[in-house]
Amino acid sequence: MARMLLLLSLFLLSALVLSGCVLFPYGMPSPGKANPGAAPNTGASAPSTPSSGPSAEPATPNPEPSQPAIQPDNSTPADNGTALNATPDNGTLPAMNATPGSPASNASAQNDTPAAPPHMAMTFYNVGEADATLIRTNHFTMLIDTGSDLSSDELARTLTQSGITNIDVLAISSWESGKLGGLDAIFHRFSVGEIWIPGDPPDSPAFHYPWLAIQQSDVPIKRVKAGDHFTYSNLALEIFNPPAKPFSTSTDANSMVMRLWYRGFCAFFPGDLQEAQEAPVLPSLGTSTCEFYKWPYHGRGSPTTSLIFDRLKPTDVLISVGPNRDGLPSPTTLTRLNISKSNVWRTATLGSIQVDVSAAGQYTVGRAPAPGG
What value does the CA radius of gyration of the chain take, rounded to a whole number of Å? Predict the structure, then answer.
């Protein structure tokens, strides 16, 4: 009996040893040490591990610029309106510096138009093969030309949506249809202080109606001429053409040529003056350069170089142009501008363009903000 009990005990002991090898094949776990390969059960999900790549860095929001950033269009098109090398709308705005000017003025606004930002802005509207330029400070508003018949309502609507109610000076730079088409709309929708003209229009049926609209508007008319100077707080305007005695019947030769100064920044408006007609203007220009230049007559070219352009050496050039059958802007003009290294801004490919000038005379060029934006 005792022998049987001994054999049974040995059998049970062997069974226990074998079962332990099956349950813990690598030995008994130590107290307080996790089992290799097992995740701890904490009752909560494990935190995600941040990526070590660039996306792990916190994103820094980019402030929205006041002007949508674009690059100038210096392409030389094979046919008009096709930009070969134009940068898309989200291009990088080139850095452009102007000479600092005089300290800020504390002058109050002179009209009822809602106050503009504390700087000067020039907006060159995309009105097709025509011209319309708004110059605005917080105490002065000037509209140079009114576009064509096709763009008149849109221009007036855009000005209204931009908060314009009063126009201190409406300037007609030349007696040409692409500058006179919006006269009626401007006179009907805005209060105009005075109108500048480069002498009376030629005796032609094409100008009878615009001239009648001006005369019936009861707006004071100023016939500007070379040598006139006008100052509106920190904004100064110099007139270089037409001469006191206008040229015969040439509307181009008699067009208004104007230089604008604002806190050291310079912009030049040559009207429709042709290269062959520039000589009388040159002696009055002096030796100062000019940062910004509006190319005459939608980018028209000439076999002769522009003496005014060569004298002023502008950094940036604006060409107001739209679809046309004349091949404008001229390949000659675009080639000349590329050689000069000037930045070229075309309304046909970039839309309405705005130049903002700070109180220090520094300026930037970009797409004009949306009306009311």
Answer: 36
